[in-house]
Design goal:
By secondary structure, chain A is mostly beta strands. Chain A is built from no helices and eleven strands. In chain B, strands 2, 4, 5, 9, 10 and 11 form a six-stranded mixed sheet that branches. A five-stranded antiparallel sheet of chain B has the order 1-3-8-7-6, with no helix packed on it. Chain B contains no helices and eleven strands.
């Protein structure tokens, strides 16, 4: 157990809907990253937040957005869901910006119908 | 696109045997990390090797890094049923955003 929690564990949505996924970082960690893992693939970096500011983004469209709160918990929002958004969404926290080791949560599995 | 590629895609071994998997990557890195994932759940950090290191050990794990060939290997010795999982290499290009390969699925038979 890493101390990183995510909710919900599973979610089913229909195409066009919006979804919010939540992540609670390990205590004391001020940096959080979000990854998308399609079935049979490795995780793909979506974006990273440090002290409530977005700090880098992967190759994902603007309909993927995020927030980090003062207590360092985080949200991933996806608008206008597409079938290809079906994946496991992982958040990972690290002790400080630049820390090399990231601690992953158990993930939220999203199915878009 | 994914920075790393693992080889083989899948590996089946008998309990007690060693398991070796390889990772190749494309650009220069700050460090390379190996993660384990059980049954499509969260990733567990196994070991980190920096670009100026060549070999690192942690328990039954041995990792090597050859920056001239842009490749790394993970060796699991004396495998156990609990080692059944997917293993991913991830590269950090000094921007703290990990780039993962597609992974190697390891099955340890009793």
């Amino acid at each position: 157990e890493t101390g990183v929690t995510q909710s919900p564990t599973h979610l089913i949505k229909t195409r066009g809907q919006q979804v919010t996924l939540r992540c609670s970082s390990q205590s004391g960690h001020n940096t959080v990253s979000w990854y998308q893992q399609a079935l049979g693939q490795g995780p793909q970096f979506i974006f990273q937040y440090y002290r409530e500011e977005e700090n880098g983004r992967g190759n994902f469209p603007p309909r993927f957005s995020g927030l980090q709160f003062p207590n360092y918990s985080s949200e991933l929002n996806v608008n206008a869901l597409e079938l290809d958004d079906s994946a496991l969404y992982l958040c990972a926290s690290s002790l400080k910006f630049g820390a090399e080791t990231q601690y992953f949560g158990p993930g939220t599995r999203l199915l878009v119908l | 696109s994914q920075q790393g590629e693992e080889d083989p895609q899948a590996l089946s071994i008998q309990e007690g045997e060693n398991a070796t998997m390889n990772c190749s990557y494309k650009t220069s890195i700050n460090n390379l990390q190996w993660y384990r994932q059980n049954s499509g759940r969260g990733l567990v950090h196994l070991i980190l090797i920096r670009s100026n290191e060549r070999e690192k050990h942690s328990g039954r794990l041995r990792v090597t890094l050859d920056t001239s060939k842009k490749s790394s290997s993970l060796l699991i010795t004396a495998s156990r049923a609990a080692d059944t999982a997917s293993y991913f290499c991830a590269t950090d290009r000094n921007d703290y955003k990990l780039s993962f390969g597609a992974g190697t699925t390891v099955t340890v038979r009793a």
